Amino acid sequence: MMDQFITLLPELNKSFLETLIMVAIGLGVALIVGLPLGLLLFVTDRDLFLENKWIKGVTGVIVNLVRSVPFIILLVFLFPFTNFLVGTTTGPVAASVALSVAAIPFYARIVEASARDIDRGVIEAAIACGASPWLIIKDIIFPEIKSGLISGLTITAISLIGYSAMAGAIGGGGIGDLAIRYGYYRYDNFVMFTTVILLIVMVQVIQYVGDFLAKYVKKG
């Protein structure tokens, strides 16, 4: 068994790195695009300071449309766009395009849900004092939801790990690709078991770090 593990180690390291690349890119795009999108969904809601039913409605429909498509179908559907954007449809960078598209609406809804927990009275008091929309977002909404944002990123990262494993089944690389090529096609139970253990460890570490940061920020 140890000899098998040593032989597998180079492939395991490569797959682990590819999975990290996919998750990191997807998470980064989710944060950059999903955070403002989630805030937009919140502040344009009814009875809020930037209420706009058209923006809220159109944005909500687009977010729901993307979320309603199963990831494996979304991955194949985006092949032409992925090829145009990065010049290939295989590899971790190519797979991260679909991962990013899936992560944006997912995280946006988490941001919106976190913002809904804010006491409306605090926002109304700020409006009464003449605070600008940007000031309300920066000094009231954002500080109140920091812990929720970190928890949301943790949930998104764990979901992306699962999505990256699916991406590996059709040429995305990563741990999923290793499990399919060696564990499934070659009927190698040791490889399958090892990849499952590695995925479990990754999820546990991310969850622990995310929970720790969320609690730290909430106390601060």
SSE map:
Elements: H1 2-43, H2 53-68, H3 71-77, H4 79-86, H5 92-116, H6 120-128, H7 133-168, H8 174-184, H9 189-219
Structure description:
It is a single chain. The chain has 220 residues and is an all-alpha fold. The mean pLDDT is 89. The chain has one domain: MetI-like (MetI-like fold), CATH 1.10.3720. The chain is 84% helix and 0% strand.
Kindly give the count of domains.
1
Radius of gyration: 20 Å
SS content category: mainly alpha
> What are the segments in which pLDDT stays under 50 over at least 5 consecutive residues?
none
Give a short account of the largest sheet.
none
- Please count the beta strands (DSSP E, at least 2 residues each): 0
**Cα end-to-end separation:** 47 Å
Order of helices and strands: HHHHHHHHH
Brief summary:
This protein has 220 residues and is mainly α. It is built from nine helices and no strands.
Any descriptors?
220 residues, mainly alpha, 9 helices, 84% helix, elongated, D-methionine transport system permease protein
